[in-house]
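[job 4471] stage=fold_predict status=RUNNING
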Amino acid sequence: MGSLLKKAATKLLFTAAMIHSPTLSPTTLPNLIINTYTSFNYSSTCSLNPILRPPPPLTYAPPLISAVSKTMSTHAANQSSAATVIDHDALLKQKRILRTKVKSDLKSMDPAQRAQEDIAIQNIVMAAPWYKSCKGLCAYISCSSLREVDTSNLLSHVLQTTTKDGHSQMGRKLYVPRVEDKNRHMRMLKISSVDDLIANTMNILEPNPLDADGNEREDVMLANDPVDMFILPGLAFDKSGRRLGRGGGYYDTLLMNYQNLVKERGWKQPLLVALSYSVQILNEHVIPVAPYDIPIDALVSPSGLILISETAFQRCQ
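[job 4471] inference complete, writing C-alpha cells
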C-alpha cells in the first residue's frame, strides 16, 4: 500500500510541477519533486496531509543574446541600410539615364516646331482664367541653351502693366529665381522690369539682388502676401504629376520650404504649373521619384492644359 501511495504521490507531484512551471527542464524537475515529496507527512491512516511551503525559487531567466545573435542582428541592420543605399543609387542612376534620353530628344527637336510650341504654350497660359486672376507668381526665366520652354512672352506680359514699385495694375507681383550657391540655395526675388536682370556666370539671366536704389529686393519667402502659382521648368513630366529636374534639387528645395511657410501662415497653397514641350511628356510612372520630389498640379503642353491634382481641378475649371 505504501509503495502504491508513493507512486501515486510522485505522479501527482509530477503533474503539479509541470502545471506550475512548464518551462522547467527534466534535470530540474526530479529535484523539485523530491523536495516537495519529503515535505508531506503520512499519518497512520495513510491519508496525505500536505505541509504547505512556498515553492522553491525558480532560477529560469530569458536566454542572453549570444555574440553570434548580436552579430547576425547587426549584419541584418547593415544589410537593410545597404539595401536603402542601393535603392537610392539605383534611383539616381535611372534618373541619369532618363535625363540623357530626354536631352537627346530635345536636341533633336526641329527648331521651327520648338518655336511654334513655345508660342502655343505661352498663349495657353496667358489666356487662362487662373493666370489672369493671380495676384502674385513665381516664374522661371527660360534659357535657350538648356532648351527650356520659352517664357519671354509670358514674363513680358506680366511686366508690361507693372509699375516701378513691382505691382501691376491688377496688383500682381512677379518673382524670378536667383541661385545663391551650389547647395540647393535658390531665392525668388521680385522684379518690375527686364532691366532688373543680369547674366550670371553661366550666362543665365537672374535678378540683381539690389534694386536701382540700392535696396534689397523682396524675397518671396519674406513677403507679407502669398503667391498664387509657380511656373516651373523641368526636363520631363508625366500626367500623374511627376517632374524630372536637372539634378540640382533647387526647385524641390525651394518648393518644400515655401509650402511649409504657407502652412505655418495659414495661406492657400500655390498652384504648381509646369511648361513642357511635347517630347518631354512621358508615360505615367516612368519617371522615378524620391520622397523629396515635389509633384506638380498641372502641366501646359502645346496640346493644352493637363489638370492633375485636386487643387488644379478646383482652381482651373
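[job 4471] summary: The radius of gyration is 37 Å.
[job 4471] exit 0
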